[in-house]
Amino acid sequence: MEYLNEVLETLKAKNGNEAEFLQAAYEVLTSLKPVIEKHPEYRNIALLERITEPERLIMFRVPWVDDNGKVQVNRGFRVQFNGAIGPYKGGLRFHPSVNQSIMKFLAFEQCFKNALTGLPIGGGKGGSDFNPKGKSDMEIMRFCQSFMSELYKHIGQDVDVPAGDIGVGGREIGYLFGQYRKLRNAYEAGVLTGKGLEYGGSLARTEATGYGLIYFMREMLKANGKDLEGKTVIISGSGNVAIYACEKAQQYGAKVVAMSDSNGCIYDANGINLDIVKQIKEVERGRIKEYANRVSGSVYTEDVNCRNIWKIKADIALPCATQNEINLEDAKSLVANGVFAVGEGANMPTNIEAIEYFLEKGVLLAPAKAANAGGVATSALEMSQNSMRYSWTFDEVDRKLDDIMTNIFKACEKAANEYGLGKNYVAGANIAAFDKISKAMIAQGII
Ligand code: NDP
Fold it and tell me: Is 439 part of the annotated catalytic residue set?
């Protein structure tokens, strides 16, 4: 496959120091091989070169003053990757690990995810290397205000619509929205999603990514003659995605026995008490370690890389923390312990060797681009409600989310079948999304 190899080589040469971006691009492009073979004409219009180059990347200084009066400087980003099917859309991540490579990988993946939702949204992502841990409310507010003082020039409800991601939840979205409204002197509710219910937020947005992951998992299991009832589940992370994936899995009768954060993991053989996790993580903003102090019989293990969780025996694993949290060794231990399905709640949580191992061993793998698209899909529903100046009930939004996730699974399954790829839903998702984006790009000419 000469064209594909050439594009991969050029990408490597141009982005040699961007490991995460190269990993994401490699995973997508190699899975598109059968499509490219069918369409040699794509070479003439440099379709792959264009789809892997962001339309725009903005990097900016974010100065702010901490509680001691000391001036701090962070780096802000917004990557507007592909706007062919709608305004750029994607979250903001505040985490010390944030850099250009991570921003580009997330924005690239977002284009494909958004296309799969069937809604008119292009792909983008942004954030900062700011570390919100241990900061006071006022420090968070000052940082968000400074961040928005630059970002507002580049976004808008028909231009680019950010939302939350790691380190950016309801509190941060509130401060960001307040500053945007002040600078624009206009109430453009659709400029950010994940807003509070009092000022234009959508019911079920908080739950959407986690619930959506389980709806996708339900469909994938159903298509393979299985279900969630009575299954043992392990979930990494204890943030927004992990908590609501746990809630919905429990509602379907699964037993979640482990969760984690970046310091370690808890194991509760009786099944995780989610009310206690919510109290610790959502209310107290504390550490998951606390769970073991409050629930007798549960065990906490310290673990900097968050990998101990993958040694626990289970039927289903849901990585919901961060990128590359499952490597080949983890994949081997999961398979050896009987895991038959993996649902990616986090973005790119499984590295390439681990994906290949799962597929080779017949593990059902729900890829992030498809399986965690419920969050952005519900964000798009929030934008629709903002445009209509109207709110749907929780059940209405949840039903739409369920339909969207069911359709995404069907699209992945159909694309995999069409190309004779069996249960490879990873390739199915990439192909189905590429089909939509590429058609829109071709129709719009060389831009
Ligand atoms: P949160 O910040 O709410 O939670 C993240 C969780 O993962 C926390 O428990 C955190 O632990 C843990 N974590 C973060 N970084 C690491 C790390 N380097 N090593 C170990 N654990 C880590 O984020 P979300 O739940 O929103 O996001 C989780 C994942 O889901 C991300 O990959 C995100 O991109 C993806 N995602 C999120 C969507 C959303 O709607 N929120 C939508 C689609 C994807 P600690 O508390 O110690 O930091």
Answer: no
CATH assignment at residue 96: 3.40.50.10860
Nearest atom in ligand 1 to the alpha carbon of residue 306 is: 20
Separation between Cα atoms, residue 320 and residue 243, nearest integer Å: 9
Q: How many domains does the chain have?
A: 3
294 and 242 in a common domain? yes
107 belongs to a structural domain: yes
**CA dihedral of 216, 311, 340, 430, whole degrees rounded to 10:** 50
Q: CA nearest 90: which of 70, 111, 73, 64?
A: 111
**359 and 224 housed in the same domain:** yes
The residue contributing the CA closest to ligand 1 atom 47 is 262
Candidates 104, 125, 135, 195; catalytic one: 125
Domain enclosing residue 46, as ranges: 1-52
Q: For ligand 1, atom 41, name the residue with the nearest CA.
A: 165
| 80 and 125 co-located in one domain | yes
CB atoms within 10 A of CB 377: 28
* Claim to verify: residue 75 and residue 174 sit in the same structural domain: yes
Query: How far, in whole angstroms, is CA 79 from its chain's centroid?
Result: 15
Whether 176 and 227 share a structural domain: no
Residues with C-beta less than 6 Å from any ligand 1 atom: 164-167, 209, 237-242, 261-263, 306, 320-322, 345-347, 372, 375
Mean pLDDT, 10 residues at a time, the chain of 447 residues: 93 97 97 96 97 98 98 98 98 98 98 97 98 97 98 98 96 98 97 97 97 98 98 97 98 98 96 98 96 97 87 98 96 98 97 97 98 97 96 98 98 97 97 98 97
The token pair at 332 is 């081997």
pTM across the whole model: 0.95
* pLDDT recorded at residue 305: 73
Q: Does 422 fall in a domain? A: no
- What pLDDT score does 343 carry? 98
Using CA atoms, how far residue 362 sits from 203, 355, 424, 425, in Å, is 37, 11, 9, 12
Is the dihedral angle over the CA atoms 10, 14, 19, 21 positive or is it negative? negative
Which atom in ligand 1 lies closest to the alpha carbon of residue 321?
7
